[in-house]
Amino acid sequence: MPVSDDEHIGYRIAALRKRAGLTQRGLAQRIPYSYSLLRHVESGHKKASPQLVAAVARALRVDVAALTGHAEHPLRPDRVAALVRPIREALDLYDLPTDPRQAGASPSDLIAAADALCRDVREARLYQAAASLPGLLTDLTASCHERPSTELWRAMASACRSAHDVTTKLGRYDLAVIALDRMGWAAERAGDPLLGAIRQYKRALSYRARDADHRIGLRMAAHGHHLLEQAGREARRSTESLAVAGQLHLGAAVIAARAGDRPAVEEHLAQASETAARTGEVGAVHWLSFGPANVGAHEVFARLELRQFDEALAAARAVRPPRGWAASRRAALLVDVARAELETGRAEASLASLLKARRLAPQQTRFHPRARETVRGLLHLRRRSPDTLTRLASWIGL
Q1: Is 68's pLDDT higher than 80?
Q2: What average pLDDT does the structure give for the chain?
Q3: What InterPro entries does the entry give (predicted)?
């Protein structure tokens, strides 16, 4: 007897699969699940797991909401706790014996899944990424223990980094710290100094809070440079190593800006700009994007923190997004531009920038602290808010 499925996910999968011109076997070949399971899900005889839904959405190039039937933004704040709980549980498996009932996927499939997860994060598909994380982390943990290899440990570090990025964007900073610890555990076993340095960059950014001791964050960024120095002379000169070094300077600039240290901001931005002139746009270093555009985006953020609002707008206008620049990065820049526009008396332009960010990356924008601050500022300016602003404020949870 078919399993009751109030959301009719199987029906939606079938409909969107057919629209894409795929047979059941054709779709099954694009996801890490069997044809038999897909057939039973579409017929309603089995429920679709969040991991399967995420994989199908990715294969069909649609949002998870198109399959689940949720509203425009399925990631409502009241559902975040339930969403991240399985991620926490999966991260806790790192030092436990492998469950013999755990059916492992092939190493190549796991590595590909870790890359796909990074792609979801870069495109700000937070619900999809969060749904994929627990299963992938569990499978990678088992495979790394049972058949360890450099490639699998790198994939494990990558998945932990994605867990950090997702939980940070959702405001679960305690879990983000745990994810970075696991990233360090995996990076050490992979023997990859680039991963270790990227982890230091991520750690350092946690010290951009205004009440944090920014000196600790700067020490973390400096240690990231030290890790790169240990990689050997030839490796240090590689484009990949230079890109990570440049990103460490950008992290340091952001931290210094929060502390109001203008000389340090200028120094690190200059170092990053010089490095970017040597590397050009680089977007394939463990899914780290670096180049002139990213330097410009970080400068906008730093100028905002220093309350140099006109300079922030000028820096934003100078940014030339490269082809394929991640939606998460584009949307974050738009949110910063909106703040600069608000502070310089351009309320209409500020609202327009926020709406663009929402269209580009709705899940990320809804949880972005600066987006919420800017909407509050716009509401404060208006005695009577236009319907567009009122709807945006309601959507963002104000």
Answers
A1: no
A2: 86
A3: Cro/C1-type_HTH, Lambda_DNA-bd_dom_sf, TPR-like_helical_dom_sf
Model confidence pTM above 0.85: no
Domains of the chain, start order: 1-74 (1.10.260.40), 75-93+105-191 (no CATH), 348-398 (no CATH)
Phi and psi at residue 299, to the nearest 5° = -65, -40
pLDDT band at 232 (very low <50, low <70, confident <90, very high): low
SS (H, E, C) the chain: CCCCCCCCHHHHHHHHHHHCCCCHHHHHCCCCCCHHHHHHHHHCCCCCCHHHHHHHHHHHCCCHHHHHCCCCCCCCHHHHHHHHHHHHHHHCCCCCCCCCCCCCCCHHHHHHHHHHHHHHHHCCCHHHHHHHHHHHHHHHHHHHHHCCCHHHHHHHHHHHHHHHHHHHHCCCHHHHHHHHHHHHHHHHHHCCHHHHHHHHHHHHHHHHCCCCCHHHHHHHHHHHHHHHHCCCHHHHCCHHHHHHHHHHHHHHHHHHHHCCCHHHHHHHHHHHHHHHHHHCCEEEECCEEECHHHHHHHHHHHHHHCCCHHHHHHHHHHCCCCCCCCHHHHHHHHHHHHHHHHHCCCHHHHHHHHHHHHHHCHHHHHHCHHHHHHHHHHHHHCCCCCHHHHHHHHHHCC
The alpha carbon torsion through 110, 113, 114, 117 (nearest 10 deg) reads -160
Contact predicate 27/17, CB 8 Å: yes
Q: How confident is the model at residue 4 (pLDDT cuts 50, 70, 90)?
A: very low
Predicted local distance difference test score (pLDDT) of residue 45: 85
User: What's the confidence (pLDDT) of residue 5?
Assistant: 42
Residue the block writes with tokens 């210094």: 256
**Contact indicator for 141, 167 with CB cutoff of 8 Å:** no
pLDDT of 127 over the 50 cut:
yes
Residue 43, pLDDT > 60, answer: yes
